[in-house]
């Protein structure tokens, strides 16, 4: 009788989660300034067609001029905590489910299953990471406000404590007013789109590149697959990201939330700022998401590679 195919050895689940978080945090150190610019541009011209920042370069120059070099790293602590929660969860769950649904000989699941796994991992990761996300959006938006309106959070933990004390713990998930105006729901919706696009397109692109015979499973292959994945993800997720950013930064007006729900954000943005404003900040978004995707997957692949060499194969 033919022997049953043996699945390749894999790292423990705890290591998968740890490597996912470390990869995301390492990438964030490099791309935090781009995340800041993206958030500022998405909030620029809020409620009108007059934009505060004309281009990404104009935004960078304005931030450097008004807030100094340290200003471009505003919100770094929140960005790192977001990766430690969101990315740890999503990449860990994705890797675990990916391996569980692969065939006995190691053949990966098809694209539809990859997308489904990515959506599941993204939604769960987003729920876990929403408090840090709310802090990140507020901290990166603070510098564009008049000095008397700034929240002045000193770091992510100060932000979380003050939000909890001043607005209630449920504000960290934006469920204080009503479920439909939740910051958690658009964050999870964005995560579903991002992860379905990013994780599935990365796996599919990497597989397609390897199938050409011109690539090996090395950093060049990981880089090319990541750049393709980043472009697909940017185009697909920007409208949902605008909704998330606006809701998480919204204020109360006459005792009522600025937006009723995600659809209300879309209608107001398109009506007041134009249809293509849904992709406002595309350049810094891709400039941030592209390298972040590249660095995250490269760090993750390299950590998995070294773990396999020194622990699984030794």
From TrEMBL:
It is a multi-pass membrane protein. GO terms for cellular component: membrane. It catalyses: malonate(in) + 2-oxoglutarate(out) = malonate(out) + 2-oxoglutarate(in); oxaloacetate(in) + 2-oxoglutarate(out) = oxaloacetate(out) + 2-oxoglutarate(in); maleate(in) + 2-oxoglutarate(out) = maleate(out) + 2-oxoglutarate(in); (S)-malate(in) + 2-oxoglutarate(out) = (S)-malate(out) + 2-oxoglutarate(in). Signal peptide: none annotated. Keywords: Antiport, Lipid transport, Membrane, Repeat, Transmembrane, Transmembrane helix, Transport. One of its GO terms (molecular function) is alpha-ketoglutarate transmembrane transporter activity. InterPro entries: MCP_dom_sf, MCP_transmembrane, Mito_Metabolite_Transporter. Solcar repeats lie at residues 15-100, 109-200, 217-306. The keyword Ligase does not apply. It is found in: Membrane. GO terms for biological process: lipid transport. Belongs to the mitochondrial carrier (TC 2.A.29) family. Interacts with SMIM26. Catalyzes the transport of 2-oxoglutarate (alpha-oxoglutarate) across the inner mitochondrial membrane in an electroneutral exchange for malate. Can also exchange 2-oxoglutarate for other dicarboxylic acids such as malonate, succinate, maleate and oxaloacetate, although with lower affinity. Contributes to several metabolic processes, including the malate-aspartate shuttle, the oxoglutarate/isocitrate shuttle, in gluconeogenesis from lactate, and in nitrogen metabolism. Maintains mitochondrial fusion and fission events, and the organization and morphology of cristae. This is Mitochondrial 2-oxoglutarate/malate carrier protein. It comes from Scleropages formosus. The gene is SLC25A11.
